[in-house]
Design goal:
With 334 residues, this protein is an alpha/beta fold. 31% of the residues lie in helices and 16% in strands. The protein has helices at 24-33, 43-47, 68-78, 114-125, 159-175, 192-205, 225-228, 283-295, 314-329; strands at residues 5-6, 35-39, 82-88, 128-134, 181-185, 210-213, 234-237, 250-253, 256-259, 262-267, 298-303. The strands form two sheets. Strands 6-5-4-3-2-11-10-7 form an eight-stranded parallel sheet. Helix 3 runs parallel beside helix 4 (114-125) and helix 5 (159-175) packs parallel to helix 6 (192-205). It is globular and about 50 Å long. The N and C termini lie far apart (40 Å). 49% of the residues are buried.
Length: 334
């Protein structure tokens, strides 16, 4: 599988030398935000399976309430500047009332349009909103072979599913205002030509958005073109940037140079979705994650999952406030 080639010994680039879609200034504005909240919430919160089979009825999703103001107020108070919500994860259950399926909040145990409330809360508290959308969908199979049923390397999607994905992303990216980051997970199940068309269309729907095709687990030192290109960002999932090279922003891909910021993503505990007993990492570890991510040239997108009551648990809120206090003690005001 082809890999990109890092530019030797240089993390900087002049605007006129980059072939990236977005201007260097725009990407550096995103980098200066530095710290964001990942919000994994949905059917997996209730069925207890991160890689849900999507076989539970829509009514199985039944939060007592959905307090997006509490989520985003917590992000703001923690010093975060943006937030990314899982609009649809592996279960296929949608946090907005999509017209392309009946597997969504409108037919569930709580009919709140979480996507709309999330966007409104972000506007209320000055946080940039982002949307996550998973290409691996165990409910809307449509003839696809998902990694739940066949080997990862053999997983694929059908044209029917890809049309469904396109239509749902159009709903998300044309009905909820300006979205700052669009996060496409498991892009490797999508053919390269479709990924290119989808990237171009996302950029058409949301021209100012940064687009993430998730590269997945790893330190970001190498980038698998056949899995996640094209993308504006490089995901560093459950790892920190390479200690020798730090994050390499300038990449040569298929003979052209691109400025590509990095984003570390990891949960505040062990699990992406809320589970009872999943306590936050120690104060020291959270401080280290932040300092290493930022000092090695990437943003930190810290996952803080709401619970079955639709709120971020107090133990996570306390951990985030302690992290901010520790950073302020080091005179690293965020």
């Amino acid at each position: 599988m082809p890999f990109e080639t890092p530019a030797a010994g240089n993390n900087l680039i002049e605007p006129e030398n980059g072939n990236q879609r977005l201007k260097l200034q725009k990407l550096q504005e995103w980098e200066r935000m530095g710290y964001g909240m990942f919000l994994h919430f949905g059917m997996s919160t209730f069925d207890g399976a991160e890689l849900s089979k999507g076989d539970k009825p829509s009514t199985f999703y039944a939060p007592q309430k959905v307090d997006t103001d509490q989520w985003i107020r917590t992000a703001r108070d923690a010093g975060m500047k943006y937030a990314v919500l899982t609009t649809k994860h592996v279960s296929g259950h949608c946090l907005w009332p999509s017209k392309y399926t009946d597997y969504h909040v409108g037919t569930s145990g709580n009919k709140t349009d979480v996507v709309r409330d999330f966007v409104n809360s972000c506007a209320r508290y000055g946080i940039m909103p982002g949307f996550y959308y998973c290409s691996w969908d165990n409910h809307h199979i449509m003839g696809s072979g998902t990694p739940s049923y066949i080997a990862w390397g053999d997983a694929y999607t059908t044209e029917e599913y890809r049309e469904f994905q396109w239509n749902q992303l159009e709903e998300l990216l044309t009905q909820y205002g300006e979205i700052g980051e669009v996060w496409i997970d498991i892009p490797g199940v999508l053919p390269r030509d479709y990924r290119q068309k989808l990237y171009n269309q996302i950029a058409h729907w949301q021209p100012e958005s940064v687009i993430m095709m998730n590269h997945g687990i790893g330190d970001g030192s190498q980038f698998k073109i056949n899995y996640a290109w094209p993308t504006d960002l490089i995901a560093i999932e459950r790892f920190l940037p390479n200690s020798q090279t730090k994050h390499i922003r300038l990449r040569t891909i298929e003979g052209k140079q691109y400025y590509m910021p990095g984003e570390v993503c990891d949960p505040i505990g062990k699990e992406w979705f809320f589970k009872e007993g999943d306590t936050p990492r120690s104060d020291a570890e959270l401080l280290g994650m932040y300092l290493v991510s930022r000092s090695r040239g990437t943003n930190l997108l810290l996952d803080v999952p709401p619970d079955k009551n639709g709120v971020i648990p107090k133990m996570y809120v306390d951990a985030l406030m302690q992290l901010r206090k520790n950073l302020n003690t080091l005179s690293l005001n965020i």
